[in-house]
C-alpha cells in the first residue's frame, strides 16, 4: 500500500521550500504521489494576496514537469472556508483503503490544536511532519500527548496502516517563506532561484504581488 501524500497550503506563492520538501518526502517515504491542495478561503489567515485562481495557476506551473506531483483544486472550487478535516473526509471516501499522509511543516503542525476538529484528522490520515529550520517537535501539551500516543519512528507503518500515526522526517532546510518572498517582490527584488522559473514568470507577467514591479524584477 503506497501512501498518498496530501500537501495543503496557501501557496501564496508556491516556492522551492515547498517543492523540495514534497520531493524528498515523496522519495524517502516512497509515496505513490503528492497531491498539492491550494486552499480556497483558509480559516487561519485573514488575508490572501494572489487570487485563488492565480495561486492554483502557479502551483500547476510549478509541478507540471513532475508526474508524481498532482494538483487537486477542490478547496479552490469550494465556496466558503476550507477545513482540512472536510477535505480528508472526502479523500477518505474516494480512497477507502489507501494510506493517506497529511504532509505538514513543523510550524503548521504546532498550530494544529487551532484547526477545526483537529483530533479527527488522525482517524482519517497519518500526519507526516517535515522539520523546518528553527522549529522543534513538541514534548508537552496536547501535541506532546499526540506524539506519545501516535508517534512512530518507522516509515513501514505508513505503508501498512491507512491512518493514525505521526511521523517526523528531517528534510533539507530551505529557509524560504511565502511571506518573505512577497516582501522581496514588493521591494522590487527578483525572486529568481527561490521559486521555479515558471512561477517567477507568472509573478512578473501578472504583477500579482506588486503593482509597480519592474518587468525584470530589479
Ligand atoms: P507564509 O510565509 O505565508 O506563512 P509558507 O511559506 O509557510 O507561507 P504555506 O503555503 O503557508 O507557505 O505552507 C504550506 C505548507 O508548507 C505548510 O505545512 C508549511 O509548514 C510548509 N512549508 C512552507 N515553507 C516551507 C519550507 N521552506 N520548508 C518546508 N516546509 C515548508
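Sequence proposed for the structure above (218 residues):
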Amino acid at each position: 500500500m503506497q501512501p498518498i501524500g496530501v500537501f495543503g497550503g496557501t501557496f501564496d506563492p508556491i516556492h522551492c521550500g515547498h517543492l523540495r520538501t514534497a520531493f524528498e518526502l515523496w522519495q524517502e517515504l516512497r509515496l505513490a504521489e503528492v497531491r498539492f491542495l491550494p486552499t480556497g478561503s483558509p480559516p487561519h489567515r485573514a488575508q490572501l494576496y494572489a487570487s485563488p485562481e492565480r495561486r492554483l495557476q502557479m502551483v500547476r506551473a510549478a509541478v507540471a514537469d513532475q508526474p508524481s506531483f498532482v494538483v487537486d483544486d477542490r478547496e479552490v472550487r469550494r465556496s466558503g472556508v476550507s477545513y482540512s478535516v472536510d477535505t480528508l473526509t472526502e479523500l477518505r471516501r474516494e480512497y477507502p483503503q489507501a494510506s493517506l499522509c497529511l504532509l505538514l511543516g513543523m510550524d503548521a503542525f504546532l498550530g494544529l490544536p487551532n484547526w477545526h476538529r483537529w483530533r479527527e484528522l488522525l482517524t482519517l490520515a497519518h500526519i507526516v511532519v517535515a522539520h523546518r529550520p528553527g522549529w522543534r517537535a513538541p514534548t508537552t501539551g496536547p501535541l506532546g500527548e499526540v506524539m506519545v500516543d501516535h508517534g512512530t519512528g518507522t516509515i513501514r507503518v505508513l505503508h501498512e496502516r491507512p491512518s493514525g500515526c505521526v511521523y517526523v522526517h528531517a528534510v533539507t532546510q530551505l529557509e524560504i517563506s511565502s511571506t518573505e518572498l512577497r516582501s522581496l517582490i514588493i521591494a522590487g527584488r527578483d525572486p529568481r532561484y527561490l521559486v521555479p522559473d515558471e512561477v517567477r514568470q507568472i509573478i512578473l507577467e501578472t504583477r500579482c504581488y506588486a503593482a509597480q514591479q519592474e518587468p525584470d524584477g530589479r
